[in-house]
Amino acid sequence: MQTVSIDKQIKPVLSGLPFDVLGETLKPLPPFRAEQVFQWIARGVSSFQEMTNLAIPLREDLEQRFSLYSSVISGRVEDPDGTIKLYIRLHDGARVEAVLLMDAEHRKTACLSTQAGCPMGCVFCKTGTQGLTRNLDSAEILEQFLHLRSIKQEHEPEIANIVFMGMGEPLLNLPELYKALAVLTDTRGLGISKRRITLSTSGIIAGIRDLAATGAEVRLALSLTTGDSKLRARLMPVTLSNPLPDLKKALYDYQLQQGRRITLEAVLLGGINTRQEDSDSLTAFAAGLDVVVNLIPWNPVQGMVFEGRPLREPSGREMRAYIQRLEQRGLKVTRRLRKGLSIAGACGQLGS
Ligand code: SAH
Ligand code: SF4
């Protein structure tokens, strides 16, 4: 589907429409036709012409009236560790990045973006320095998955997991994200299990409450970074309008309702949030919640400074001491493997 032309401005795009909406859009075509089109999109066909169970005049009629997709792959870079980053160009020229990661067992994870840029301004994140260009619509979110899947070699396994850890704050784009999730998880099409989908948020309380209320049932990760409110507000301005005690209450309620373990992510910045106070404050935040802590050594982004000091990676000693203190307090800790560093495809490096 990389070669399709993009003319969204004139024709409505079908790829990101949930099943029912697609049915409405294609009326007066009967529902079984809509289901066929839905399935073809899930397979990632390049054009209406490939929809061989539709009569040729119908394919031509659809082609006149609709676009299948709204984005194209505009570039691709590959890290020796197997990570592949795609540059994707949207109909208005905006760009997003999507990343395919491979773990030691050769399981593949698609890391998707929800916004072009990001408004949250976390000081350690490259995307955060760009500001927000705009929200992505459901087609633009869904198509990142289709694009990543299209580069798969024949013998390779299917993508096993989806994480919304690319560019942007997913919970600030919930209406479009919900539509994309509806398409991704629909068993009549892609049928990806909700348990294999993780949303990562910088901590938008209203969004977490919305997820709980709508029963989205996906996995949730919070980028906590530190449990020290003052330090967190300096690193992640979102803290000012979403205070940590209220955020914890929202997670607690979410967990009561969804019963799922939550991931607390902490990007570790050498000499800044690796002190004993920081692991203590993180432990205090975690108390009463069912969590696993995922530590991410800061991925270098050139020229990034925090209050006048250049940011640096945590040393091996800082990492080990931090992990040890959390484990001594009984927390389950995982360490994120560093992937895609050489292509700036790792967490927080997107936006070149
Ligand atoms: N905006 C969402 C999801 C995208 S960021 C969020 O912030 O949760 C995904 C993860 O990358 C977050 O946990 C964030 O803290 C982390 N991150 C950002 N910049 C980073 C960097 N330079 N090195 C390592 N991790 C980083
Ligand atoms: Fe946005 Fe997440 Fe980066 Fe913060 S870490 S600026 S929320 S993408």
3D structure, described in words:
The protein contains 12 helices and 14 strands. The protein is of the alpha/beta class and 352 residues long. The chain is globular and about 70 Å long. The model has no long low-confidence stretch (mean pLDDT 93). The structure holds S-adenosyl-L-homocysteine (SAH) and iron/sulfur cluster. The site of S-adenosyl-L-homocysteine has 18 residues, from strand 8 and strand 10.
Helix amount: 25-40%
CATH architecture call of the largest domain: Alpha-Beta Barrel
CATH class (first level) name of the largest domain: Alpha Beta
Spatial sequence of strands, sheet with the most strands: 1-2-3-4-7-8-9-10-11-14
Report the uncertain regions.
none
CATH topology value of the largest domain: TIM Barrel
Using the alpha-carbon principal axes, give the shape: globular
Mean pLDDT: 93
Fourth-tier CATH superfamily name of the largest domain? Aldolase class I
Counted up, domains total 2
What is the count of DSSP helices, taking H or I runs of 4+ residues? 12
Any chance you could write out the topology, listing elements then pairs?
Blueprint: H1 19-26, H2 31-43, H3 56-65, E1 71-78, E2 84-90, E3 95-102, E4 108-111, E5 115-118, H4 126-130, E6 131-135, H5 138-150, E7 159-164, H6 174-185, E8 197-201, H7 205-214, E9 219-223, H8 229-235, H9 238-241, H10 244-258, E10 262-268, H11 276-286, E11 291-297, E12 305-306, E13 309-310, H12 316-328, E14 332-335
Parallel strand pairs: 4-7, 7-8, 8-9, 9-10, 10-11, 11-14
Antiparallel strand pairs: 1-2, 2-3, 3-4, 5-6, 12-13
